[in-house]
Amino acid sequence: MKKIKVGIVGGSGYTGIELLRLLTQHPSAEIVTITSRGEAGTRVEDMYPSLRGRVDLVFQDPKEAPLKECDVVFFATPHGVAMSMAEELTQNGVKVIDLAADFRLKDTEEFKKWYKMEHTCPDILKKAVYGQPETMRDKMKDAMVLGMAGCYPTSIQLGLLPLLELHKKVGNIVDIKQTIIADSKSGISGAGRKAAVNLLCAEATDNFKAYGVGGHRHSPEIVQQLSEFAGEKVSLTFIPHLLPTIRGIFSTIYVQLTEKGMEQDFQKLYEQRYANEPFVDVMSKGALPETRMVRGSNYVRIALYRKEPNLLVILVVEDNLVKGSSGQAVQAMNILFGLPETTGLEQIALAP
Amino acid sequence: MKKIKVGIVGGSGYTGIELLRLLTQHPSAEIVTITSRGEAGTRVEDMYPSLRGRVDLVFQDPKEAPLKECDVVFFATPHGVAMSMAEELTQNGVKVIDLAADFRLKDTEEFKKWYKMEHTCPDILKKAVYGQPETMRDKMKDAMVLGMAGCYPTSIQLGLLPLLELHKKVGNIVDIKQTIIADSKSGISGAGRKAAVNLLCAEATDNFKAYGVGGHRHSPEIVQQLSEFAGEKVSLTFIPHLLPTIRGIFSTIYVQLTEKGMEQDFQKLYEQRYANEPFVDVMSKGALPETRMVRGSNYVRIALYRKEPNLLVILVVEDNLVKGSSGQAVQAMNILFGLPETTGLEQIALAP
Amino acid sequence: MKKIKVGIVGGSGYTGIELLRLLTQHPSAEIVTITSRGEAGTRVEDMYPSLRGRVDLVFQDPKEAPLKECDVVFFATPHGVAMSMAEELTQNGVKVIDLAADFRLKDTEEFKKWYKMEHTCPDILKKAVYGQPETMRDKMKDAMVLGMAGCYPTSIQLGLLPLLELHKKVGNIVDIKQTIIADSKSGISGAGRKAAVNLLCAEATDNFKAYGVGGHRHSPEIVQQLSEFAGEKVSLTFIPHLLPTIRGIFSTIYVQLTEKGMEQDFQKLYEQRYANEPFVDVMSKGALPETRMVRGSNYVRIALYRKEPNLLVILVVEDNLVKGSSGQAVQAMNILFGLPETTGLEQIALAP
Amino acid sequence: MKKIKVGIVGGSGYTGIELLRLLTQHPSAEIVTITSRGEAGTRVEDMYPSLRGRVDLVFQDPKEAPLKECDVVFFATPHGVAMSMAEELTQNGVKVIDLAADFRLKDTEEFKKWYKMEHTCPDILKKAVYGQPETMRDKMKDAMVLGMAGCYPTSIQLGLLPLLELHKKVGNIVDIKQTIIADSKSGISGAGRKAAVNLLCAEATDNFKAYGVGGHRHSPEIVQQLSEFAGEKVSLTFIPHLLPTIRGIFSTIYVQLTEKGMEQDFQKLYEQRYANEPFVDVMSKGALPETRMVRGSNYVRIALYRKEPNLLVILVVEDNLVKGSSGQAVQAMNILFGLPETTGLEQIALAP
């Protein structure tokens, strides 16, 4: 079988190395080029010795990298890079999978507000598809550009999807006048591989804190998607916290139900909705997820609990670098190229 | 000045060693005896080498320890021990400070339900005072028995106190028909020093999980106290989580406000309410607490944030072994014996 | 291709779950049965939710498990179990791979001294082969019983192998009158999944200590193997320490060289010796290993450094649960059944 | 009693905040000024909320700070700063305590080699005293400038002091032809509060590595001091490693003994040598130190173990920010001003 020729732009961050880890083990992918402005000329395995003996690549300057010869290019870059290159690539028949935010928000004004830059290719944005297999699989198949779901959004959206779909379908399940609360906690790799005092080990380990309380960039994305699921505008209160772990997102979601909502069997609803999803695991009634249950794997695990009759508590875990980012991007590549979605993604979580 | 003669029952757990750390540095206390059934005969500093050179004590069997000669006895024991000894001690004029739950819940049926044992001294319970200086200072002064506030309850109650007091005073501030949500996270020392697989380093570090979702023993205590503050029955959804840190509790509290509530200046309210509290710090507007800001100290730090106009988010940190337990107990001792409350409790948090 | 029928005895510890993780992803192995006295009847995925959806097995009582129908049985048990079952299994043509110490030490008196039990099958011990592919590959191929190398021993022996082989071959390289020093550090999973206060998260995290200074069970094994490599009795000072990490062993080895030894190019020697070893990586000159470079993978990475002309410092990392235990055992299975050694063991280290 | 007027130059790093923590609790010291070029104008408690309510200071620009009005100025700065200001301060009668390396090495060529800068005040250096109370107490009393011992050096020097003093006194105890090996491990705060990718939480936690293997700046300092103790040139192999903890140094020291050395009772020797040292604890025979036994305290704890008859293993723990730096500096201040050495330094280690 001919392998998919893959390019990675921005390979020196955490989503970049995670793409390397996953794609190196992918039976149908071949990494043709990986770029890094700052590390051009450095052997990948010198920078990431965990890949010694497994990757025979040198970081290339993005200008010199043969990206146009690829079948697909992943952008593991800061916001703004993918949109500067998407047009040229797609015109050359190269598919684009952006792990950053350039193609997530449909509203360019919202994009500008949160990312402090103009959107430079609104036409491509219109055709771009939001990259979340569980909800967009069919549309993703034929897309040229995918704007992959963010890490927090993936956990919160998959946690709420069956509930809000039901709300849309039968109406009046969630008390839509009340805000949905997502109290999320993320391991520190979510903040990226950047030298910053607040991310130092001596600052962040043996510690726990909230951040971005005043407004986090992932909020508009989540609201956009939840509202899409629900068929009406949803209010969300999203409070992110920083865990002293490397990987893992844990979202504790609180939803107020209507009287009609209180009568539903959500355990059954979720199990049915996700029965055929290879990477979404609805845990048994009474079981509780832990971040280590997905460490290094592409799974999301979800548990449901009813406190007070009208309050549904939804607990979701994912590995922010896998299902929350690079793993989901590889899953998207599998969809783009007609492969089984689990190809190259069958790593089992590392436990203990 | 004559020193307070102190006894500690159950000195081999984490609240026990924390009492030792604090009382050893207390200028007006003298530890007369410390008991441990399992460790009787062991030198304290052999078991806890962090105390080498500072404590010249041997664990005694509780039956042989001169507890009745003490001025005050701390119970750093499992639930049920303090109530079995409180009568004899108080009859001998010895004050009792229980760090466990024997004297927290006023309703003995509730106690039985959550702690799976009969309350054996309801008469003493009636006279016992709930140990939380910020709300019970005056009553605590003359008490013979104090049932100290629990670790989670301290963080949640102090986080809600000014708000609920206002609600009681002027009415209709909090939307009392909605449940208050306390999404709490605790370091692992809160689970105590007991050999259990789920508390192993290889199980609990680099991990994050919820637990006790179905109902935690601290719930009835918190509801009892919040309802007292509010002047009416309060509904609470309390979801505890386990942090991969040794110490620290972080409670993120979500409260839905009425229209009248939305008009209040909570920052000012909290600052005023706690202006004279030596250990409660209302952080500046926009600042956010972190658990390391109280590591090893008796402070609680609180920040307030208004999301959606009708949703107040309250963020609270404490060290579960200090303000959440042994430190607050020493503060209570200071109250009982007429000392300044900060005596022996001026340790500054260890940072980094 | 017909799959290898595998049994696992003692599946509820860390080496057991790690075997499950690896064998589940192994293309030529089929787990037929897994036993656990304490967990008989429990679904494996209920105990280890990281395996949900990937393992459809129930723990069986060892007495009822169809071990004799297997092609190979792994013992992930405490010391003493494998030797009680090895005879019956091998007589039925079932190969035995013991991850514990029953078949490591050739001297039954040494075994008795360190493990406080008689060796019950010295005849089988005589025919058993020490399980370390890099040194015993050829003998392992035809063995019925393998006593797999321990975790610390693997790191120290692979760190010293080329040097001591040279010493044996040309003589007088290492100053054999001086003790070799192995200052080793292990993540806490090396202590196993047992409820013990000293292994608690609140005790072992944010801490570092030495242990077993007076003598560790791995010493006689290491001395046995090093002496075999060197062709003469070697003296070893082995000081194990406990790291506040879950996985990973780091051995810093200090060897005093003779004048003849000082003239050698050890970097070249090691690179040549391990050139064809799929899992031993001699790092580039000047590079230094870190435990995260092998986290979750079967690699050993080695760096050499010459301090003082006559002192060779050898730095070795491995994942104690993979190359130090279950991974090496799967590698051994591959050898026993004529498969490429890397089959099912190509996981790349999880970084970050 | 009149308080000592204290200035701190370079207050925004970890040794700076640790000085703040300790001096704020010191009964005889008053912090008059604290400087930080980068943070001038910032309230100290805004930068370090752990000090909220306890420190009423604003970082000042070093040029505007009233340093000359102080009795003593601590330099918690990068190397090179103290020597640029020492002359002016001492001429004004202000004592200088440098926590960096400007006044540690007596040989200015060595200083230049390791710190890549010329020494600018060799005359002051000649009169400066090395700041290690256990060996230099008498000389420190009258010094105007103290070059405080480094963090690693403190642990290694105190670990070897009694042994080398005996060697000097009676001769031929240590096999001086062999190198002494110090395998040291440090928590990450030792690397300082600087934004660097290799110090990120996602890089350094759940990891262990060696570094500076080719030569660490602390080597010449340690060799200088050990040679002074021994009365002859000592050879040292020092391999530092990075622990995934915030605080704590653990040095495992290996010394080869002569036949005469083998006859000594080192346990007794150490106990006697340190009997009157308030901060050096020789642990009981058989006991082993752990870094948490000194977390946040000014103690050093030492254990001795004899492996092979001729190999002495010495295990030493300290908190790198307290006894390894700021605590020892406060101890030095106490000596300079005739106070009991333990003043303000009686914090007990935080355990758990």
Description:
4 copies of one chain form a homotetramer. With 352 residues, chain A is α/β, with parallel strands linked by helices. The first copy, chain A, folds into 2 domains: 4-127, NAD(P)-binding Rossmann-like Domain (Rossmann fold), CATH 3.40.50; 152-320, Dihydrodipicolinate Reductase, domain 2. The first copy, chain A, has helices at residues 14-24, 44-47, 81-91, 108-115, 122-127, 133-141, 151-170, 201-204, 218-230, 259-262, 266-273, 322-336; strands spanning 4-9, 29-35, 72-75, 95-98, 129-131, 145-148, 180-186, 209-210, 236-242, 249-256, 280-282, 300-307, 311-318. The longest helix of chain A has 20 residues, at 151-170. Chain A is globular, with a radius of gyration of 20 Å. Chain A starts with a strand and ends in a 16-residue tail after the last helix. The model of chain A has no long low-confidence stretch (mean pLDDT 96). Chains in contact: A-B, A-C, A-D, B-C, B-D, C-D. The interface between A and B is large, with 42 and 42 residues.
Briefly, what is this?
The structure is a homotetramer of 352-residue chains. Chain A has 352 residues and is an alpha/beta fold.
Helix fraction of chain A, binned, reads 25-40%
CATH superfamily placement of the largest domain in chain A: Dihydrodipicolinate Reductase, domain 2
- The overall number of domains of chain A is 2
Structural class of chain A: alpha/beta
Number of strands of chain A: 13
Which keywords apply here?
Rossmann fold; 12 helices; oxidoreductase (chains A, B, C, D); N-acetyl-gamma-glutamyl-phosphate reductase (chains A, B, C, D); six-stranded parallel sheet; AGPR (chains A, B, C, D); 13 strands; NADP+ binding (chains A, B, C, D); 352 residues; homotetramer; Dihydrodipicolinate Reductase, domain 2; seven-stranded mixed sheet
